[in-house]
Structure formats: structure tokens, C-alpha cells
Amino acid sequence: MENLSKLNVLMCGTGEYTSGWVGAGASKSDKKVEKLAMVGVNGGKFPAIRAHLEDNIGKVYKDMDLSFDEYPEGGKVDAEASTHYPIAIYAIERGIHVLVTKPATQLLKHHIELIEAAKKHNVVCFVEHHKRFDPVYSDAKARAATLGEFNFFNAWMSQPKSQLETFRAWAGKDSDISYYLSSHHIDICCWILQDIAVPTRVVASAATGIATSEPYNCVPQTEDTITLMVDWQSIKSPKHKGTGVYTASWTAPLKAGVHSAQHWYYMGEKGDITVDQAHRGYDATVDETGKTWYNPFYMKYSPSESGHFDGQRGYGYISIEKFVDAVRSVNAGLSKPAEYDKHGLPTIANTVLTTAILNAGRISLDEKRPVGIKRDGDQWILE
């Protein structure tokens, strides 16, 4: 791969998960390029972002190039500069490879349009579902394949109430906690059950009252905690049906020792699997902050012995590296985009059922009814 051409990369969005910077400064979360650019709604944020990158990267690691072009320039504000589906389809239709953060889209029809566009324009389109590259999750997937028919899956993921301050601009308006957090483990369940079972029905329920009260004061329709219950049908055995329960919350207690509490349980015909992603057997206690559990498997932030960046083995890094390697290979004519659908990678085609379940969950909440999922020809539809 060293001899392949480097890429020019545009990062769309300048918030916590792109730059690591939030309005109050550095984010408190545990979170092969020639030219880099960044685009966001508010160009006035770039001076603070540059200072943040210098403090947290430039002054920490040796030989790191922090340069990037900024759009909009000159402190301008452009409200259309950063939205998932319009930006992704715009890029794909112009032959640009795309890595979109999870969930790829909120609507199933938009996800399908991205699949079709990527195929038509022969570009790589991945969704940044980094948990597929967590060594525990990938090992658990392999073990689940030996447990026979699927029976039950239960996932929990939460973040502290302080996140409502970070996300107040869009929480409950443009998205919800299920799209934001349950997208992780719904994708893992869909990945595990690929070739084993398919979802057929979704029923959603929500708890409310914290996000819309002081001091957060989110918009009235903001849910605190959302649970999706999904019926799954075995592909091979008509008599085998399973149940998936996926819960996400952004009103968890403060000072819980982890930024994201997350665990899941899988039960198959011949055994079960339990994963506690938040507590990896590695914790530290400090007088001022108490006990904190760390996850160096995601990213190693401490420098190497020589003072250089040393996070290349983290699954957060690998998730992006897989996309970069695929794009460089396709650009060099060594592979074709469709080949990556066959390898269990989070391509736009391989993640369609994640969006189907999330979209169905939102409809179930809004319309207070079960929502069916079925295959119509070669596409998935909601009923």
C-alpha cells in the first residue's frame, strides 16, 4: 500500500467527533493523506479548533502535520455545509469516495439511494461503524456463528446527562438518542445475524422528562431513553424466531467512571455471550475525579517511546484505515468497490438493515404502532 497514491480528504462537520472540540473547549469524551480540509456550518470555530489541535496533538506527538483548509472561510456561517445524506449523495454523484458516520441516514429510502448511487458511480462508500473492528466484538461474532439459531439479544448504551449540553443544538430536533447510540449495537447485531436471521417487526418505547427540564431545556419532543424491540426470523428455519432489545439513553448519571456505558448479551440455540465494552479490566482512581475505566483498545492516546503517535492499533483508527486502504486500492485499479461488500466490512450495502430498524423505530414512536420490515424484490421496505 505504500506505493499507492495518497488521498485528498474533506471532513464534513467540525464538532466533537470530527475535531474533538466543543464550544467549551476540548471534548471530555474518550474519543494516509496528502491534503486535508474541514467544512462545517460555522467558520468562526476554526481558530479555536486549530488551537485545540495544537494543544492536544501538536504539543503531544512529534512530527504531526496539523494543517488543513477550512470551509466556509473567513468566519462565515453556512447552514447547509454539513448534513449527512445531501453531502454524501452530492459527493458520490461526482465520483468521490465517501466514509459517512453512523447512522448513514435516518430514512431507509435515503440509505437505498446511497447504495444505488455508489454502485452507479463505482465509488467506495463505508459507514464508520468502528465497533466491528473491536477485537472483542469481532471475536464474539465468530463465536456466535457456532451457537446455532438466534434466540435473544439485549444491548444497553448510555452517555451522561452532560452530553445534552453538547448536543442541545440538534437533540430532539434533527435526531434522537436511538439514532445516535443504538446505531452501534443494532449494527453489531445485524452483522452477527448476517446469513442467520432477518428483522421483521419493530416496536419502540421511550422515557421522557429529564432532557426537557432544567438545566438542559431541550425541545419538547426530546426523548431521554429509547428502547426498540425487534422480531427476528431465522433464514433457514421457519420455526426459529428471535428477539432483539436495543436501549439507548443520554440521561445517565454523571461521574459514572465511563463516558459511554455499554454492554450486550447474545443467546443462541447452543450457548450465550456477554460483552461489557465499558469495563475492560483497566481502571484508575484519582483524588479529584474518582474512578475511571479506560478503553485503550479504541485508541491509545499516549505517545510512543520516540514521542510519536502510537494509536495505529486501536479499532477507532483501524475503522478509518480500512476505508482509506480500500479507496487507495480502488483508485489504483487493484480492486473494485463491490468486492468489499463480500468481506463483512461496514459498506453502505452491508449496513442497510441497521438503518431499516432505526427508521422503523422512529416511525413506531411517532405513530404509536408496530412497523414491519420486509424484502420486496431486491430491496428492503417498511410497512
UniProtKB/TrEMBL annotation:
This is Gfo/Idh/MocA-like oxidoreductase N-terminal domain-containing protein. InterPro entries: Gfo/Idh/MocA-like_OxRdtase_N, NAD(P)-bd_dom_sf. SUPFAM superfamilies: Glyceraldehyde-3-phosphate dehydrogenase-like, C-terminal domain, NAD(P)-binding Rossmann-fold domains. GO terms for biological process: NADPH regeneration. Residues 7-129 form the Gfo/Idh/MocA-like oxidoreductase N-terminal domain. GO terms for molecular function: nucleotide binding; oxidoreductase activity. One of its GO terms (cellular component) is cytoplasm. It comes from Favolaschia claudopus.
